[in-house]
Amino acid sequence: GQQLNQSPQSMFIQEGEDVSMNCTSSSIFNTWLWYKQDPGEGPVLLIALYKAGELTSNGRLTAQFGITRKDSFLNISASIPSDVGIYFCAGRLDYGGSQGNLIFGKGTKLSVKP
Amino acid sequence: DSGVTQTPKHLITATGQRVTLRCSPRSGDLSVYWYQQSLDQGLQFLIQYYNGEERAKGNILERFSAQQFPDLHSELNLSSLELGDSALYFCASSRDRGELFFGEGSRLTVL
């Protein structure tokens, strides 16, 4: 079945650093979504992408829908402590007028450098 | 606040028991999804309903069942509970573009 590879699995950040993470798929998608989950809470939608090549920002967050439609990237600029959490990518292929299933990556865990 | 409401927030029960988790979607959303998240795991899709009808099924065990009622709220029933069923259960709802909005989850602990 469809699989999403999200990397890195985890990373440590120092305040002020830029952060990058990505998702790749063996299949093409026509929707990419990025979510953030804080401990014990539900995932919160950060950015939604609907077109290959699309670049969308939400404050310090920028995400891109890859040209091949098989990947997406999320960048966080000038990280702050509250950026800590787990970031999930999710992709979906809609076809024949119907929405496909949303497939989630396994997440990238952002922690503060000790 | 996503607008999706889940109850209860926490639930502790014993093996072999049965529980029901409840979800109220965002106003106007016809689709409801259920996900399971075990400790340090990703989100496992269980089942989707659209306007009262089952739309898609994921890795949902036979011991689990769900339904969506005419007022669009949904219930996830978990029976013959096992220790491994301990997890966070999330409900999400969506409208036209398919962006999922998640509730805060129900944390189930099976002892």
Q: Share of helix among residues of chain A?
A: under 10%
Shape verdict of chain A: globular
Assembly state: heterodimer
Content of β-strand of chain A:
over 45%
Specify Rg of chain A, calculated over alpha carbons: 14 Å
Strand % of chain B is: over 45%
Note the gap between the termini of chain B.
Answer: 31 Å
Structural class of chain B: mainly beta
Low-confidence stretches of chain A: none
Query: Mind summarizing the main beta sheet of chain A?
Result: 6 strands, mixed
Total of DSSP H or I helical runs spanning 4+ residues of chain B: 0
Major sheet characteristics of chain B: 7 strands, mixed
Structural class of chain A: mainly beta
Largest interface: A-B, 22 and 23 residues
Alpha-carbon distance between the termini of chain A? 39 Å
Round the mean pLDDT of chain B to the nearest integer and report it: 93
Query: What is the chain-wise order of helices and strands of chain B?
Result: EEEEEEEEEEE
Strand segment tally of chain B: 11
- Name the helicity range of chain B: under 10%
General description of the model:
- The complex is a heterodimer of chains A (114) and B (111).
- By secondary structure, chain A is mainly beta.
- Chain A has strands spanning 4-7, 10-13, 19-25, 31-37, 44-49, 55-58, 61-65, 71-76, 85-92, 103-104, 108-112.
- The mean pLDDT of chain A is 91.
- With 111 residues, chain B is mostly beta strands.
- Chain B has strands at 5-7, 10-13, 19-24, 31-37, 44-50, 53-57, 64-68, 74-78, 87-94, 101-102, 106-110.
- In chain B, the strands form two sheets. In chain B, strands 2, 4, 5, 6, 9, 10 and 11 form a seven-stranded mixed beta sheet that branches. Chain B has a four-stranded antiparallel beta sheet with strand order 1-3-8-7, with no helix packed on it.
- Chain B is globular and about 40 Å long.
- The mean pLDDT of chain B is 93.
- Chain A binds chain B through residues 31, 33, 35, 40-45, 48, 50, 88, 90, 92, 94, 99, 101-102, 104-107, and chain B through 2, 4, 33, 41-43, 45, 48, 56, 58, 88, 90, 92, 97-105, 107.
